[in-house]
Specification:
Layout lengths: L1 E8 L3 H12 L4 E5 L5 H6 L1 H20 L12 H12 L2 H12 L2 E4 L3 E4 L2 E4 L2 E10 L3 E3 L10 E2 L1 H4 L8 E5 L3 H12 L3 E5 L11 H13 L3 E3 L4 E7 L2 E6 L5 E3 L1 E4 L3 E3 L6 H4 L3 E2 L2 E2 L13 E3 L11 H17 L12 E3 L5 E5 L2 H6 L4 E7 L4 H4 L7 E7 L5 E7 L3 H13 L4 H5 L12 H4 L1
Parallel strand pairs: 1-2, 1-6, 2-3, 6-19, 8-15, 9-10, 9-15, 10-11
Antiparallel strand pairs: 4-5, 5-6, 7-16, 12-13, 13-14, 17-18, 20-21, 21-24, 22-23, 23-24
Helix pairs in contact: 1-10, 3-4, 3-7
The chain binds flavin-adenine dinucleotide (FAD) and nicotinamide-adenine-dinucleotide.
Length: 444
């Protein structure tokens, strides 16, 4: 039996950060994954998704500029777009393996399972460890209704070699919003069944309302307040049934109904690691409350929002706590979040309703601004913002943007929140003109 200072289960963002930091301090480290190395973001999430968004953005730009100096229709060749995506994703696992080898980190392939509080079995071997980090990410929530076996996951969607004509998305959050914008611009007829009463419930309702114009223009059929309850195989494909809704025929049904920590294969009972409501019970140092040798990071820990920068942050926090003893707590202030629709919608800090619920005193500024130069030069009809600035301190409490460059500009608001910059600091910054960021002064 081999003994390591640290065993990390997973090979995604959280695993990469924690393993590299602990190894750099001279400790022995092993990582493991049952899928090709690289994790969700690089192989099945953010990065491949955004390569497909690049194609959809091009179509959108050409469409917007029709009659403004651009003529001729462009179209997406789906197989070529997928091949383009693979130029990025295909080399990732090998690069990751080489990087682990170069760092002197041992890499194992296979499902890892605890065999005791300080032991893990993988590839038929048992590894003992002074510390174990659970960085197993998240998986789609199981959907249990008749015909659920016909649903494909986001992993499969991002690998499709051809795009079917009729697509149904179950759920109305990030994945549904992003995939529907890609698929519609690639020529598919898309229907979204959303259980909640609107799309993108984690984003500001006013801004989502402005963005819905784009869904309508694209012909995306969004059906709020509808929970899918059955899928039927017919002679012509699939028939998707939802509460109180007419059934919709589809060639492909995609899971976009949320994700949860991926813990089932771990045998957490053997690890003496407790779980409550499908989540690990962790203390403020991301350490198991029942087994102090075990920490968790990223989507598996589920302490911060399930986003890549949070996984990296958790990885840094856990590395410090392993190397120096529990001394660092995660800090999730000012985590920006973007849904990469076209145009994107972005948010950081408190929403209006959260700020009101906390009883904070703040000045709110919100405007629908398709008449601003940033939108006009792109012939984009969707552009608007909402900002919350605390009275007295002048601190930015929250910022919400929909429209061109929202995905980049939101980072400056995130910077302001994390570093306690004031609205006046933002107004008096010198920002290159004309850029999306040069609108910030007018937003606060
Ligand atoms: C379609 C999609 C798009 C996304 N887009 C964005 C985006 O644009 N921006 C953003 O910030 N976030 C995005 N996310 C979320 C982001 O990808 C995740 O938050 C992030 O990748 C989580 O990283 P992690 O290290 O915590 O886990 P992961 O990267 O998921 O790594 C966990 C790894 O553990 C492995 N594993 C699980 N169980 C075991 C076991 N028992 N034994 C061995 N290995 C195991 C898994 O195979 C997996 O590779 C997206 C997610 C999806 C699904
Ligand atoms: N750009 C990004 O940062 C990005 C992109 C994609 C995914 N992600 C991450 O991945 C996670 C998963 O994404 P997601 O879009 O699957 O989840 P989500 O939590 O964003 O949205 C899921 C939605 O599905 C709905 N829903 C659940 N069950 C349903 C059912 N049976 N019928 C109809 N609707 C149902 C819910 O109302 C909810 O709004 C997100 O939480 C996010 O953190 C991030």
């Amino acid at each position: 039996m081999r003994t390591y200072d640290l065993v990390v289960i997973g090979s995604g963002t959280a695993a990469q950060v924690v393993s590299a930091r602990v190894r750099k301090a001279g400790r022995t480290v092993a990582v493991m994954d049952h899928r090709p190395f690289g994790g969700t973001c690089a192989l099945r999430g953010c990065d491949p998704k955004k390569m497909l968004v690049s194609g959809a953005e091009t179509i959108d730009a050409a469409h917007r500029m029709q009659g403004h100096g651009v003529t001729g229709e462009l179209r997406i060749s789906w197989p070529e777009l997928i091949a383009f995506k693979r130029t990025f994703t295909d080399p990732v696992p090998q690069k990751q393996e080489a990087h682990y080898a170069a760092q002197g980190i041992d890499a194992f392939h296979g499902i890892a399972r605890f065999t005791g509080p300080d032991a893990v079995s993988v590839e038929g071997q048992e590894l003992k460890a002074r510390h174990i980090v659970i960085a197993t990410g998240a998986r789609p929530v199981p959907l249990q209704f008749l015909g659920a076996e016909h649903i494909i996951t986001s992993d499969r969607f991002l690998k499709l070699e051809s795009l079917p004509a009729r697509i149904v998305l179950i759920g109305g959050g990030y994945i549904a919003a992003e995939f529907s914008h890609i698929a519609a611009r690639a020529g598919a007829q898309v229907t979204v069944f959303q259980r909640a009463d609107r799309m993108l419930p984690r984003f500001d309702p006013d801004l989502v309302g402005w963005l819905m114009v784009k869904f309508a223009e694209l012909g995306i059929d969004v059906r709020p307040r509808s929970t899918v309850n059955r899928i039927e195989q017919t002679a012509n494909g699939l028939l998707v049934h939802a509460d109180g809704q007419q059934s919709v025929a589809a060639d492909l049904v995609v899971h976009a109904a949320g994700r949860e920590p991926d813990l089932d294969a771990l045998d957490l009972t053997a690890a003496q690691v407790t779980v409550s409501k499908k989540r690990l019970e962790l203390n403020e140092y991301l350490q198991s409350v029942s087994n102090p040798l075990v920490y968790a990071a990223g989507d598996a820990a589920s302490m911060g929002p399930p986003l890549t920068p949070v996984s990296a942050h958790d990885g840094r926090v856990v590395a410090t706590n392993i190397l120096e003893g529990n001394s660092r707590k995660p800090d999730y202030r000012g985590v920006p979040s973007v849904a990469f629709t076209i145009p994107p919608i972005a948010s950081v800090g408190l929403t209006e309703s959260q700020a009101r619920a906390q009883g904070l005193k703040f000045k709110m500024k919100s405007e629908n601004t398709p008449n601003w130069y940033t939108a006009r030069r792109l012939a984009e009809r969707v552009y608007g913002y909402k900002t919350l600035v605390e009275e007295g301190t002048d601190r930015i409490l929250g910022a919400h943007i929909v429209g061109p460059h929202a995905d980049e500009v939101i980072n400056l608001f995130g910077l302001a929140i994390r570093h306690n910059l004031t609205a006046r600091d933002l107004q008096t910054s010198m920002l290159a003109y004309p850029t999306g960021a040069s609108d910030i002064g007018s937003m606060v």
